[in-house]
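## Example pair
The file below holds two records. Each record gives the amino-acid sequence first, followed by its structure token line.
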Amino acid sequence: MKPFLSRRRSLSAFAAACLALSLSLPVGAAIAADGPAYGPELEGFDYPMPVHRFEFQSQGQALQMAYMDVRPAQPNGRTAVLLHGKNFCAATWDDTIRRLADAGYRVIAPDQIGFCKSSKPAAYQFSFQQLARNTHALLQSLGIGRATMIGHSTGGMLAVRYALMYPQDTEQLVLVNPIGLEDWKAKGVPSLSVDDWYARELKTSADSIRRYEQSTYYAGQWRDAYEPWVQMLAGMYRGPGRKQVAWDSALLYDMIYTQPVVYEFGQLRMPTLLLIGDKDTTAIGKDAASPEVRATLGHYPELAKAAAKAIPHATLVEFPDFGHAPQMQDPQAFHAALLKGLGAVAVGP
């Protein structure tokens, strides 16, 4: 494991610079016609805390997994692992990292293989099992045993798979608007080939990201603070590695569609906290479905209640006015609920 320290930058300052169209790009970034261009491993985009690299072998390849490891000033003896979503990165957990560290948690926030600052392998069999194994290997390399797994969106599907594979190492499970609360293919969403997903991903732009996030993640609302995360993603699709970024993204969409976790909720035995923005409507491949099928998908209030009923030791907290990303839409309300839910679990051996 070799550490790599990124330069610090204020995200609020970055947002202001984006909006003023006077973005001061770090070394390694280029300027495209419509915004910054980053490398395939987000070279040129700075994270809010130092970034380290976990180097390991997987499927016959030498890979590196980027992560942040933030230690609290006054430790409470617990570790929280933050698992990002499909259109997110470890950096988007910035506020949550700080809140948890202030509360005494050691916080590990990795970028999964295929995402953000981690390796983008040209040939890789993506599965939630593989990503869980990679994450477990990272934690073992850091000497971390039991941890609280906090997953958002696709990271929620990964957190469930991790908890099923490593129940003895999962102290508590927190699912923040996880996808995978329903099986889309079983409900009639047509299958898209990896080639189809790849063609779609090559068309990704800042405008398409922004439109999708505004309608789904933020319940029709938009704030200046969200723009850096749009540029973070769009920058990889403007950069020299855009084809590899798009290819890995296509493989990941296929993984999400074909590997449901909803049927295994009853096997989770650890305390589970569901934090759900009710205005979320996320469903993979929904736009490819018929209008009749589309109307049945992504009803998070109903899906959340069904999940809470299926998971043996679940606590459901709903945010009626939030969308897919409650931790970003209202950080104060979200983190109050998160810390309360974490504090309700007694620390065991």
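Second record, same layout:
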Amino acid sequence: MQTLSATDLTLGYGDDIIIDDLDITIPKGEITVFIGGNGCGKSTLLRSLARLLKPKVGEVVLDGADIAKMGTKEVAKKLAILPQSPITPEGLTVYELVKQGRHPHRGFLKQWSSDDETAVNNALTSTNMMHLKERSVDSLSGGQRQRAWIAMTLAQETDIILLDEPTTYLDMTHQIEVLDLLFDLNEKEGRTVVMVLHDLNLACRYAHHIVAIKDKQIFSQGKPEEIITCHLVHEVFQMMCDVTFDPRFGTPMCIPHGKGRCLIKKQTATELA
């Protein structure tokens, strides 16, 4: 199984530093979720781990080698990334999209093989998209379209999958559909999954490991049940909250403070005492 880490990592755009002198090791065979406020560097860090952004300082190490010194196809055989809101060429079918995931495994003169076909069919089956393979991607619902893109990354047959906000713009049903799919891929196939998520409660439900980012650094990391506290949420998101436990899953559940209709009788200080 492939390993992924970074040391002394400094990232930015022009003179703007987004991540500064950061060290991170992604746990193998687990689901890791990056959390943090808007603009804190979650997506920037993910892009760097996928070699889409060159570090200003430091290095990303994939399977023991500096990723910057590896060939594009070599990286793509070990690591797949699904960017936020990918754009599909008009008229492309699900099958044609998923076939693109086999590109890293094909040479200039290599013909489409039975191994390629098997990988595509397995990806379509895993994502429950086989019955939609002849449909154009742009005709699908949001959840189906996201599953088609995930199928393409699965066709690469990599141990590591990176996803930048895979549930953005999806309704509640499709969010759970996509996250359940990724959970199953981890549970059944041992894939290492790294995601950026905005919904803290869903991050706690699905992640084995959470990385909270603030002020260009890792503020805290670990199991959700060990690190998600009122203090962390206040420091990372500048929000007051209560942290309780999800009654169904037992994972941390954040209840933000703020205004809204309150149907619970407000207790006085004497009553609380």
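Notes on the second record: The first helix runs from residue 42 to 49. The chain has a mean pLDDT of 92.
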